User: Fold this.
Amino acid sequence: MQMIPNEGDTMNTEQENHEQSKAQKAEGEPLLLGFDFGTSWTTIKSNRGHKELIRSVVGYPRDIIGVKLLGAPYLVGEAAFDKRSFVDLRSPLRDGVIREYVERDLEVARNFVSHVIESLSPEPDDEVCVIVGVPARATNTNKDLLLQVFEEVVDEVQVISEPFLVAYGQDTLVNNLVIDIGAGTIDLCALKGAMPGQNSQVTVTKAGNFVDEQLEAMITEVYPDVQMNTYVAQKIKEESGFVGTSPNQITASLRAHGRPVSYDVTDLVGKACEMMMPGIIEGVDQLIRTCPPEDQAEMLQNILVAGGGSRIIGIDKFIQESLTEYYGDVGVTCVDDPTYAVCSGALKLAMELPPKYWEKLGSVTDY
Assistant:
């Protein structure tokens, strides 16, 4: 689940990004991008210093009045979200992928990707090359649809497992296990010194969005007078999400019959967040069983939690204590910068491996 960082710490203005890009462009150097295309949030980093966080939504006018108000056929990101009261708000992805064979979803993804690439203001002679993160167990059809969308606007593109990209960015490619907790999926990957195959990866669909839905339902049940939606639930989770013991009481400022009210939602937030945990523990257990017995102890000492879900208070301790019951000594840590961990790894891979070799990244032997 991709939680929102402080914008002042992580986002540059478009003008600043463009000026950085122009200043850092080398003669004949392609524009390389690491692209973490997320269900709720998308992050990008380039080899010319561009770094940006974008809400993964596209807004379309509902009628002719909406067209006049927008002054454009559609809006992308925060501009669309801010006008959600009078636009048809659509997400390009569901559970981390483009929904198969739904032309409308392909159109949304095209509009989103083309807008993001154009916002980088590439030069006319630029070769634009992108590595995009995808869920660990994305199907070939999912990957092909994503490739199709990007190939319409860039020169070279490759899709790579998101947890592998986290590991690549952290230089942890041997006997490590990555848990990448996003909005649409939780992706787990056992790293054994090579590009992981399907047997070394697990995708769990009860992720950040699932927590939002459960929290919304529980608050509505306990406080039936409250006006709730998933946006309100998501904000509460992002500000106060925890597992285990709460560090403090969580009081939510809500609305009941149009009037402001405050309710204690501490237990509800904890219960909702902990509903993700069984899938994570089961996924770790499944992957550990695929590893040679002589490597399992080291693997369990090197578990890395990434994605927006790694911001949930106490999640590393909760996972560690849950696994210790089964395996004994276990080590779990969270990445320092979960917002950009995937796209940072993607950009690092793009810069260290020339684009002409990217097609070979898809050729792996399953293990």
Remarks:
- The longest strand covers residues 174-181.
- The domain at 208-274 is CATH 3.30.420.40 (Nucleotidyltransferase; domain 5).
- The two ends are 28 Å apart (CA to CA).
